[in-house]
Design brief:
InterPro entries (chain B): HotDog_dom_sf, Thioestr_dom
CATH superfamily of chain B: Hotdog Thioesterase
Largest sheet of chain A: 6 strands, antiparallel
Number of helices of chain B: 4
Helix content of chain A: 10-25%
Number of helices of chain A: 3
Number of domains of chain A: 1
Oligomer: heterodimer
Largest sheet of chain B: 6 strands, antiparallel
Low-confidence stretches of chain A: none
GO molecular function (chain B): thiolester hydrolase activity
Protein name (chain B): PaaI family thioesterase
Pfam families (chain B): 4HBT
CATH topology of chain B: Thiol Ester Dehydrase, Chain A
Mean pLDDT of chain A: 91
Structural class of chain A: alpha+beta
CATH architecture of chain B: Roll
CATH class of chain A: Alpha Beta
CATH class of chain B: Alpha Beta
Radius of gyration of chain A: 15 Å
Strand order of the largest sheet of chain A: 1-2-6-7-8-5
Order of helices and strands of chain B: HHEEEEHHEEEE
Strand content of chain B: 25-35%
Largest interface: A-B, 40 and 40 residues
Helix content of chain B: 25-40%
Distance between the termini of chain B: 42 Å
CATH topology of chain A: Thiol Ester Dehydrase, Chain A
Mean pLDDT of chain B: 91
Number of strands of chain B: 8
Distance between the termini of chain A: 21 Å
């Protein structure tokens, strides 16, 4: 059952046009934990002077990873939407390096899923950004 | 009473403001990637996000990706804040749009944190947003943004962010 849900979540997220447009890919998705990767791309730069990726692209990756974590949770019926998401930016992502995100759906109720996530580049020590959000719990199709 | 200076011709003023705005917006690759443009009326800016297939986050509904909505709000906040911060220099002519076009962008505010409330799903059509600067200090600024689609009074998302202002000298 859990494996099926993981497959569905993976297929669903991979079919998202915007996830494809940003070049996002899964590195792990399992029982409420999702990990994704987004290669560096000059089209996503927010500061042309330094080549640093725009915060908006980091937000999109974190939001997608959080949604995937909810969908893969054993207690989730399958579908989800973001209620709110807060992102803290610790530092600029290093230009040229891929971004890696990890999200954990640490609590799920009948109606709400709570998620925490972080984004890293090649440096494992200091995250580029962290996120905390609340998501809806709903069926895969409405 | 000293004779007041004759106001500049309207075209000159508009041209200067539009050149500054264009340079500010079009110099950022990610803004171009999402296709965001800004409408200007005096100093008031409205961000416009024309709908496109690549912005979809849920193909079944379909709905705009939550990450796109977050990025749209954040872009609106940063441009709105930069615009207000640069306004006096644009008006005085001190701000050189030509230099900007050649890639010499001014230092922009940096996002410290950003929180998005998703009020309803983003429909597959154009979206608009306006930023309101609630605090603008020498170091920190707090900005609120509202985004809507068909109806100005039915926002589909809102966001609040804190920003670190560019430090000209240490």
């Amino acid at each position: 059952m859990a494996a099926d849900k993981t497959t569905i979540a993976k297929q669903f997220i991979s079919a998202i046009p915007h996830a494809k447009a940003l070049g996002m890919e899964f590195t792990k998705i399992e029982s409420g934990v999702a990990e994704m990767r987004m290669p560096y791309d000059e089209r996503f730069v927010g500061d042309p002077k330094t080549g640093v990726i725009h915060g908006g692209a980091v937000s999109a990756l974190l939001d997608t990873t959080c949604g995937a974590a909810v969908m893969s949770h054993p207690k989730a019926p399958g579908g989800t939407a973001t209620i709110d998401l807060r992102i803290d930016y610790m530092r600029a992502a290093t230009p040229g390096q891929a971004l890696r995100t990890r999200a954990h759906c640490y609590r799920i109720t009948k109606n709400v899923a709570f998620v925490r996530a972080e984004a890293l580049d090649d440096d494992d020590e200091v995250p580029v950004a962290t996120a905390a959000g609340a998501f809806t719990v709903e069926g895969l199709t409405q | 009473m000293s004779p007041s200076k004759r106001p500049e011709p309207v075209q000159i003023v508009k041209q200067r403001r539009d050149a500054a705005l264009n340079a500010l917006v079009h110099g950022v690759p990610y803004i171009k990637f999402l296709g965001i443009e800004f409408d200007r009326r005096g100093d008031e800016l409205t961000a416009v996000l024309p709908f496109s297939e690549k912005l979809i986050g849920n193909p079944f509904l379909p709905a705009i990706h939550g990450g796109v909505t977050a990025a749209f709000l954040e872009v609106t906040a940063i441009i709105g804040l930069s615009w207000a911060y640069l306004w006096d220099d644009i008006e005085s002519g001190k701000f050189d749009a030509e230099r900007l076009v050649s890639g010499d962008l001014p230092l922009l505010p940096k996002t410290i944190d950003f929180t998005v409330d998703y009020l309803r799903s983003g429909l597959p059509r154009d979206a608009y947003a306006r930023a309101q600067i609630n605090r603008s200090g020498r170091r920190y600024a707090s900005v609120h943004v509202e985004a809507w689609q068909d109806n100005r009074h039915r926002a589909f998302a809102q966001g609040t962010g804190h920003f670190l202002m560019p430090q000209s000298n240490g």
